[in-house]
Amino acid sequence: MVCGACGMAADVRAALEDILAPAGLTLAVLKAEGRYVEDVY
Predict the structure, then answer these.
(1) pTM score of the predicted model
(2) Of 14, 16, 18, 28, whose CB has the highest number of CB atoms within 10 Å?
(3) Which InterPro entries match (predicted)?
(4) What share of the chain is helix, strand, coil (3-state, %, to 5)?
(5) Do 28 and 16 meet the contact criterion of CB atoms below 8 Å apart?
(6) What residues contact 30, with CB distance under 8 A and at least 6 apart?
(7) Angle (nearest 5°) at CA 38 between 37 and 41
(8) pLDDT for 3-15, tens place per residue?
(9) Rg of the chain over CA atoms, in angstroms?
Protein backbone atom coordinates (compact mmCIF):
# COMPACT_ATOMS: atom_id res chain seq x y z
CA MET A 1 0.00 0.00 0.00
CA VAL A 2 1.18 3.47 -0.85
CA CYS A 3 -0.30 6.25 1.24
CA GLY A 4 0.51 9.93 0.85
CA ALA A 5 0.21 13.04 -1.28
CA CYS A 6 -0.65 12.78 -4.99
CA GLY A 7 2.71 14.22 -6.00
CA MET A 8 4.59 11.67 -3.95
CA ALA A 9 2.44 8.83 -5.31
CA ALA A 10 3.50 9.60 -8.88
CA ASP A 11 7.17 9.37 -7.93
CA VAL A 12 6.63 6.15 -5.96
CA ARG A 13 4.68 4.69 -8.90
CA ALA A 14 7.54 5.51 -11.30
CA ALA A 15 10.14 3.98 -8.97
CA LEU A 16 8.09 0.82 -8.51
CA GLU A 17 7.65 0.43 -12.28
CA ASP A 18 11.46 0.57 -12.63
CA ILE A 19 11.90 -2.02 -9.88
CA LEU A 20 9.20 -4.37 -11.18
CA ALA A 21 10.14 -4.26 -14.89
CA PRO A 22 13.12 -6.66 -14.68
CA ALA A 23 10.84 -9.23 -13.02
CA GLY A 24 8.29 -8.86 -15.82
CA LEU A 25 5.71 -7.35 -13.48
CA THR A 26 3.66 -4.16 -13.76
CA LEU A 27 1.61 -2.18 -11.31
CA ALA A 28 -1.46 -2.95 -13.42
CA VAL A 29 -0.95 -6.68 -12.81
CA LEU A 30 -0.33 -6.15 -9.10
CA LYS A 31 -3.45 -3.97 -8.83
CA ALA A 32 -5.56 -6.58 -10.67
CA GLU A 33 -4.33 -9.24 -8.23
CA GLY A 34 -5.06 -7.02 -5.23
CA ARG A 35 -1.36 -6.84 -4.36
CA TYR A 36 -0.98 -3.07 -4.81
CA VAL A 37 -3.21 -0.34 -3.42
CA GLU A 38 -2.87 3.44 -3.40
CA ASP A 39 -4.49 5.74 -0.85
CA VAL A 40 -3.55 9.23 -2.02
CA TYR A 41 -4.86 12.66 -1.12
Answers:
(1) 0.75
(2) 16
(3) FNR_nucleotide-bd
(4) 60, 15, 25
(5) no
(6) 20, 36
(7) 160
(8) 788 888 889 999 9
(9) 10
